[in-house]
Fold this sequence. Notes:
By secondary structure, chain A is an all-alpha fold.
Amino acid sequence: MSIVFLILSILSMAAAIAVKVMFVPASDGIDISGAHVFFTIKMPIQDLPITEAQVNSWCVILAVLFLCLFLTTGLKTRNISIRQMVAEWIVEKVTGLVRTNMGEYFEGFAPFIAAILGLSGFSSLSSLLGLFPPTSDINIIAGWAILVFFLITYYKMKAGPWIYLKSFGQPQPLLAPLNIISEVATPISMAFRHYGNVLSGSIISVLIAVGLTKLSNSLFSFLPGAIADFPYLRIGIPAVLSIYFDLFSGCLQAFIFAILTMLYVAGGFPAEEYAARKKRRQERAAAKAARSQTAGKHADN
Amino acid sequence: MQDLDIISVNIWHIVISLANLVILFLILKKLLFKPVKKIVDKRQKEIESEYKKAEKTQAEADAIKAEWEGKMATAEAEADKIISDAVERADSRNEVMLYESREKADQIIRKAKADIERERKDARETIKKEIVDVSQTLSEQIIGREINMDDHRDLIDKAIDKIGEEQ
């Protein structure tokens, strides 16, 4: 039963590969361009082109969905399987990470952080399968960063909009413009950091591949005919670089994005003011309740 | 179809990506975190109940052990008491027997003494009588005349008593 979900999970990534093989024309590996556009939907404001980035991220989501189902089928309380151990390990680690970085109050953020880690990590790692990594599309990361920005603002507003507005005038009212700029810069810097790292990785990979082809051609030009044209130096060397640019950088950027999300959301949250406000509200509610009770008694009399 | 430019901003892409992240968040929350948390909590509860059960069993075992130890102690004390009672009883019976035997011995001795005394008395009576008779006969023969028997006897008795006292 559970193996079906694993197969479906793998199949969804295989579907992405199949789509790419069927619809994306083969390139020589020299052109540096964005995602391939499959078709365009007419939309207000701006047309919506459905690109490789969209399709791949949906495939990643499907893969993660089936992976979750695979991990959580047949949970038991004792004699647990390796699948369940993995599932519990993931949940425990992410919850622990969130708790240490954000505190007890934000424990509900664990699935969100896991979603960022999973989506970003798997998207970056999809380049290992020869797919276009969705994380090298600025729009994808921008969407996440804007969501994080909303969260940061929401939690800053938790202690009341007045305190939120006042926080811009600190430590000096004159610095308000700078504070506003830094506030806006947060999601932009997050988006560009992640996107730039992944995209630069693929660009450098392409450049190195081209460079190695040229170098190999000039080095082995003494060989006769077609044998000389084969890019010998492209065997192995790009794979080593790919370990850094695709595997390491992809995981690292996912981790950095998650950590920054946690730090910004938890750091912007004015815990003391929020606690004070909550207390005030409770007191007010208690006073109101007491008043209404006495009023009720008077009415009875 | 052509490729996108390397940097091209599309508002719909941003919205879709934002929605994607929210969807994945919901998927992970409902399908991974919730069931795993549930099962972990359940296991925690089970462990706690197991612990409680074990503690209860331990307490019961301890109580039974204490009870048995108490019983053992009383049993030992009882055994000691029984032994000491037996010893005491034996001692007292011994004493009684000893006393009784001594008593009997005393009685025998007393009886013997009484017998002896009586014998002696008898013997003395007999001897006295003999002496009186003999002395009467002797004195009759010596004096040769009848003696007032009663006076005579009285006299001799006195003499014999005197002798007995001197003895």
